[in-house]
Amino acid sequence: LKDSLINIGFTLIKNEEKYDGVVLRKLQENPDKYLVQGTRNNKTTKLEYFELTRDEILDGRDLVRKVISHRMKGNGSSARTQLLIKWETDKESWNSMPDIRKMFSTPPEAVMEYVLQHSLLGLKDCKWMKKFVGDSV
After folding, report:
1. One pLDDT digit (tens) per residue for the chain, 137 residues
2. Rounded distance, CA 130 to CA 137, Å?
3. What is the CA radius of gyration of the chain?
4. Cα(72)–Cα(125) distance, rounded to whole angstroms?
5. Residue 13 forms beta bridges with which residues?
6. Alpha-carbon distance 72 to 118, whole Å?
7. What is the DSSP letter of 21?
8. 64-73 and 80-87: which strand pairing?
9. How many whole angstroms separate alpha carbon 42 and alpha carbon 19?
10. Which residues contact 104 (CB under 8 A, 6 or more apart)?
11. When you count CB atoms within 10 A of the terminal residue's CB, does the N or C end of the chain come out lower?
12. DSSP notation for 67-82
């Protein structure tokens, strides 16, 4: 059974510093904790590693189970892509791309797969995901 936290990206705040965090693996010596790589990008990129519990990683966030549909909200250059997401908690909600980007520092696998399958990568508010395409195909 694949652990749903492995490889997710999220924004992590530790000691008042903001990091782009990625869950690397579950710790064998302490199965309640995960090894998380944090990248802090001020003027120089600095990698740090943290041991966090599932609750610390999720911190009120939920995981994406799948993307059900999408729609465009607004007209012309102000149009925004929204995805109907089914969460691990079985809740469903419409979420804009900017909101998804704020929730996750790297796009969840289900979001990336949906965007690629439905040729949404070229849309203005989906372009931030282009740098992650090599990781998902």
Report:
1. 467 788 888 778 887 888 888 899 999 998 889 999 988 766 556 788 999 998 888 776 778 889 999 999 988 777 899 999 998 778 899 999 988 888 877 788 889 999 999 999 988 899 889 888 864 44
2. 12
3. 16
4. 11
5. 18
6. 13
7. E
8. antiparallel
9. 10
10. 8, 9, 10, 11, 111
11. N
12. EEEEEEESSGGG-EEE
Q: Rounded distance, CA 100 to CA 88, Å?
A: 15
Residues 63 and 88 sit within 8 Å (Cβ to Cβ) = yes
Q: Are 41 and 17 within 8 A, CB to CB?
A: no
pTM: 0.63
Question: Tokens 């195909």 appear where?
Answer: 137
Cα separation, 29 vs 102, whole angstroms: 32
